[in-house]
Amino acid sequence: MVGRAVSARDLVLGRLRAALAGGAHTPVEVPRDYRHEGTLDLDQLVERLTDYRAHVHRVAEAAVADTIADILPAGGTVVVPPGLPPAWLPPTVTALSDDGLDNARIGAADAVVTGAAVAVAETGTVVLDGSPDQGRRVLSLLPDRHVCVLRADQVVATVPEALARLTPQRPLTWISGPSATSDIELIRVEGVHGPRKLHVILVP
Amino acid sequence: MNRPTFLGMPATAPPGVGHLRGDESFPAAARRSLADPQLRRNLRHATTTIRAKSAGVIAESPDWEQLRAAGAAIKADTLNRLPELLEQLEAKVIEAGGVVHWAADAVQANQIVTDLVRAAGADRVIKVKSMATQEIGLNEALHAAGVTAVETDLAELIVQLGDDRPSHILVPAIHRNRAEIREIFLREMPGVDPALTADPSALAAAARRYLRETFLSTPVAVSGANFAVAETGTLAVVESEGNGRMCLTLPRTLITLMGVEKVVPTWRDLEVFLQLLPRASTGERMNPYTSMWTGVTPGDGPQAFHLVLLDNGRGAVLADEVGRQALRCIRCSACLNVCPVYERAGGHAYGSVYPGPIGAVLSPQLTGVDDNASLPYASTLCGACYDACPVQINIPEVLVHLRAEAVDARRRPTAESIAMAAAAYTMDHPRLYEAAQRASRLSRVAGRRGRGLPPPLNGWTASRDLPDPPTETFREWWAAR
C-alpha cells in the first residue's frame, strides 16, 4: 500500500474489516417474536390521536366538506394537493391547488387538506407518502393547520403492519399529533415549527 | 492508546478537533456541578418527569422485552456485517440519486461538509439536531470557513444563543429552567418581544417566529440520521418540533452526516426501532414527526442529497469484542435519565458530547481510554442503565472492562486492576454476578457497620460509610417485579 494514495472509502472499509477480523462471527439470529399484528380498534386510534392533542372528527364521507367548513373560517384559503377529491372541499373556502405553489403562498394559507397513506391505531400516527391526494411534503408543513382525511381501511393496529403497507422509496412523513417540544423542563408544549393544529377526519 | 494510522488498522478519533474530550477529569468537573443547587434541581425535576413518562408508555407495550431483544440482535448482526452493509447502503443511495462520501475522521468530515456548502454557494446552513455533527465540531469548522450554522432544535438553539454546551443527548438544555431560557432569549434573540414571558409555550412561539424566515431562505441543511436502511437506501430522522421537517424539505441541498453504525440491514428492522426509540427516549408512543427519504424525489424536497459516512474512532470500538456493543446505541438517552450519577453531576461533567452512562463507555473507546481515563469511573455500577437500555447494552460490563484497560495502561498490577479484572469476568457471566451480589448481602450479616473495608479497599471507606448491602439485589428486585 506504500506510495499509493488510499481513498477515504478504502480506509474506512479497511479499518472496519480489520476490526472484525479477529473473532469468528457466528451469524446472529434476530428473534422476531414481538407482536406483528394487533386487533384493529378505531376507538383506540381516536383516543391516542386525541391524547396527543389532535382533533378527531368521525363522519360519513359525504359530510367531509361540511366538517371542513366547521373547522376553517369562512373565506379562508386552503392549500390542496392536485389529487385531492374536490367533493371534500366546502364552497366556503378558497382552494389553491398545488401546481408548484411557492413557499410564501403555502405558508400564508389558513390550512392544508390532505388524504393519508396509512394510520397506526396503537401509536396515534398518520403517515403521508406523497401520493396525489397528499402532495409534496412542504404542503403539510408550512400552513398552521393540517386537516387530514383518513379512511377506516387505511388504519392498521401496529407499527409493523404500517411499515409493511408503505413503499420505502417514497418520501414518508409520520405524523403523531401536532408539532410539539419537550425541550423546556421536559414539559410537552404543542406547536413549534410544524402545523400547530392537526385535525383528522375519519371516514368509514 | 492511539494506534498508528495505516491502512487496515482501526484508529481512534484524532485529538484537537471535535468534542469527545473534556478539559478536565470527571471528578474535577463534577465537583463544580455538585456545588450548583439550581442545576441539581433542574436535573432532578427533568429526569424524574421523563422516567415516569417513559415507564408509562413502556408498560403499554406487552412485548417490550421481545422488542429489546430484537433491537439488540439487529444491531449485533449489523456490527458483524458492517462493511458489506455500508457498501449496500452506498449503492442504494447512489441508485436513488444521492452522493455518498466517506470520512475517516472528524477532520475529513468537516472538510467534506465545508466543501459541499461552499460548492452550493451558501454562507449559512440550517441544522437539525445531530450528535455526530457535534462530535466532530462541525459548527466551529464551518465558522472558521465563514459559514454560519444555525441550530434549529429548540434546545440546541437555547444552547447556541446562550453560548453554552449541551448537557443531555435528547434535551441539550436540560440544565436550564424556563426563567433562565427567557433571559437567554431576551438577551440574544434578535427581534424578540421584550414582553416575553417564561411560559414554555410562549418561549416555543418565540423560537417559531425567530426561525421561520431562516428556514425559508437558507439553501443548505445539515442533518444527522437516526437510521439508514441498507436494503433500500432510506434515511430516517425522528423529531418532535418540525424543525427537522423544515430542514429536510425546504433547502435545495441536504447534507446528512451519520456514524457508520447507524445503518440497519432491512426496511423491516425499522418496525422494531420505531417502537423502541420514542418510548425509551421522550416517553411517547410515537414522536410527533418522523421523516424518511430515499435519495432525491423529483419535485419534492432537496434536489441534491449528500450522505457522509463517518468513522472517527468507530472502527477502534468495533475492534473490541466487549466494548463494541456501545455501537448499538440509538441515542435515546434513557440511560442518562435513570443514572444516579448523571442526575447529580449533570452532562457537562463528562466533557464529551456523549454524557451519562453511554458516554462513559463510548467516549473513552472513541478517543482511546488514555484520553478519557476518568470516565469509566463515572458510575456506581448499579446497573439501572442496562435495564433501561432499549438495545440491551450491558454498560456496567463495558465500564468494568474499560476500567481494567485504564489500569492496564498504567502498567502495574494493583489491587484495583486485579479486582476489576475479576469483576469484568464476573459481570460477563450473569450467574456469577448474581451469586456475587447475593454474597455481598451475606456480608450484611457478617460485617458490622462503621468499621469500613479491610485494606487495600479502605481507601474508599476512609471518607465514606460503607452502606449496608440491601436485603434484595437490584437484579432480584427487577426479576420479581
TrEMBL record, chain A:
Alphabetical list of Gene3D superfamilies matching this protein: NagB/RpiA/CoA transferase-like
Protein known as: Lactate utilization protein C
Domain LUD: residue ranges: 107-203
Coiled-coil intervals, chain numbering: none
